[in-house]
């Protein structure tokens, strides 16, 4: 059905003059008596100024002749007696005078979210705060050069002066100590810092070289390493030692990454051309540290290694881990004479790889401690 506007004016020869035009006006309603009247018009259908009122209707034929069913409705409208019920019953004949809002779009106000990543714990922080919500480290901390919880005020004296002072103290301490009077061994190798995610992303990977740099700087600031602790040098673990933990296929897959600029075992487990070497150094250092402790030369030790290992299983790398350093260290301790080994896995995620490796080995117990 077409939509036309029928304009009624003065009566001529007993019939209403009709004209079609584009002007759209609706009928106003009187809520008190339910009748619809055009403002400023009388009951005869004409306004006080002599101008007619507009009635928006849908006509049934192209000639503009009114259908017999709606003639009474049209008559009521012309006389100002149209009710809400009439509009409801004959809704198809009336156009709603509504504005077209198809092109409406809400006003979008761009709000920039402040986001920064802690150099100490690597976690994301939102807002304009200057202290990490998780670990309390300052946003502009110099921890990577000056040690744990190094606020910007530590840089007032000048980084070069502070670093020179630290190196001097550590050198003096290290010259006065030996393995015989040190009860704690620490192992570290800078080549493990080369293991990194090549692809640049908006969110830095939580397992990155900065974490190891922060630990090393903190120990140096405290004068522990180098200084009061017995150093353990890192060596690359042999394939034969790795095969006691991993399948040959897995070992070969990790070694293959040394020929690839960037690769991924899982979406969050990356590798670059230095990752295979770093993984062998980490496993070899953990093995030698366990042997050194069991031999009695030191009471305990700490391995500053990466990539980590407790998610790496017999046949696959996952969860940032390539080789399972904990499993390698446990077997090295047993090779040195230990009858039973307890692995305490303290992490927010379950060490599934370590559990899989020793699932059938009753001489190695794994205890999982979740950090919430």
From TrEMBL:
SUPFAM superfamilies, per database record: Arginase/deacetylase (SSF52768)
Provide the residue span(s) of the region labelled Disordered: 1-57
| Keyword Zinc among UniProt keywords | yes
**Biased segments, Polar residues type:** 39-50
According to its UniProt record, this protein's enzyme class is hydrolase
Q: What is this protein called?
A: histone deacetylase
Cellular component terms (Gene Ontology) = cytoplasm; histone deacetylase complex
Q: What is its main location?
A: nucleus
Q: Which InterPro entries match?
A: HDACs, His_deacetylse_dom, His_deacetylse_dom_sf, Ureohydrolase_dom_sf, Znf_RanBP2
Q: What is its EC number?
A: 3.5.1.98
Q: Which residues form the RanBP2-type domain?
A: 116-135
